[in-house]
């Protein structure tokens, strides 16, 4: 699936404060993960202009990182058993999917 980069509205990368406001997380918690998630997103996605979908994915990436900080092994145990949580959520994969770099070989 290709995206016409010229047809997309460019938006700035959300700041840590904006991510904290949108996610409802504490700014101190957000700042612990913000730079790493921005760098990881830039490494994984190929895009000429930063789009609203990537901005939304960044907010979700940081929210997930903050939530996962309470589960250091990435395993959640409930009445059904142990569940391993993935590195990114389905919504992040959906939002970033069209921009993902494809690595071959």
UniProtKB/TrEMBL annotation:
Organism: Nocardioides bruguierae
Lineage: Bacteria, Bacillati, Actinomycetota, Actinomycetes, Propionibacteriales
Domain of life: Bacteria
Protein name per the record: Uncharacterized protein
């Amino acid at each position: 699936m290709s995206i016409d980069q010229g047809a997309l509205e460019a938006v700035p990368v959300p700041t840590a404060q904006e991510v904290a406001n949108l996610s409802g997380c504490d700014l101190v918690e957000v700042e612990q993960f913000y730079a790493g998630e921005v760098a990881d997103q830039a490494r994984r996605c190929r895009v000429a202009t930063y789009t609203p979908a990537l901005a939304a994915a960044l907010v979700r990436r940081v929210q997930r990182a903050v939530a996962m900080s309470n589960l250091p092994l990435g395993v959640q145990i409930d009445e059904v058993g142990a569940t391993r949580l993935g590195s990114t959520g389905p919504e992040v994969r959906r939002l970033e999917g069209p921009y993902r770099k494809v690595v071959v070989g």
